[in-house]
Structures are given as C-alpha cells and as structure tokens.
TrEMBL record:
Species the sequence originates in: Polyplosphaeria fusca
Name used for this protein in its record: Uncharacterized protein
One Pfam family linked to the record: Het-6_barrel
InterPro entries: HetReg/Transcr_Mod
Length: 104
C-alpha cells in the first residue's frame, strides 16, 4: 500500500499502526474465502463455500446467506457472507427472484 504522495520514510514511522490494522483485518477474515458470483459480484464467505453454492438474501436478515442444495430438495446453510453491492438494500432495486422458504 505505497502511495507516491506518502513518502516511504513516513510510512515506516506508521508501520506499527499499519501492522495493527492488518492484524485486525486478518483476524476478521479467519476462515473466510473470497468468491465471485455468476453475475460478477465480489463477496467474502465461509471457508466451506464451493462452486454451485447459492447466495440468498432473506427478508430481515443482516447478511446474505450462502446455501447449498441438500437431500430431497432441502437447502443447507453454509454460512453468512458479505456481498459487495447488495449490503445496503440495493438488492431491492434489482427485481430479485423472490421465493418462499420453509424452515423445518
């Protein structure tokens, strides 16, 4: 993260602050994996995410949920995710595919 307008010597003076920031980011992303959806959205999800999983946004949920097809038409929750571009309600402007989901 070198900026021409921020001299390297000044950067060294702030190295401990930068290291603290990187440490916090590393801790926040433990067991997380970056992914890209079929529509090109960049996300960060559970370490177990794999191709073919679906990112779902449930009404009232704080975060998108990564799901996977299960046995006999069931859906398995893999974990929560961050999906850039839909975290602040933007999904509602996209005419999403709305379906009922039954929880057993």
């Amino acid at each position: 993260m070198y900026d021409r307008n921020f001299p390297y010597e000044d950067m060294l003076e702030h190295a401990t602050d930068f290291q603290s920031l990187f440490d916090v980011v590393d801790m926040a992303n433990l067991q997380r994996r970056p992914f890209v959806t079929a529509k090109g959205y960049l996300g960060l999800g559970p370490e177990e995410i794999r191709p073919g999983d679906t990112v779902m946004v449930f009404a009232g949920a704080q975060m998108p949920i990564v799901c996977r097809d299960g046995i006999a038409g069931s859906v398995v929750v893999v974990g929560d995710s961050y999906l850039h571009g839909i975290m602040d309600g933007e999904i509602m402007d996209m005419k999403p595919d709305v379906r009922g989901v039954f929880v057993h």
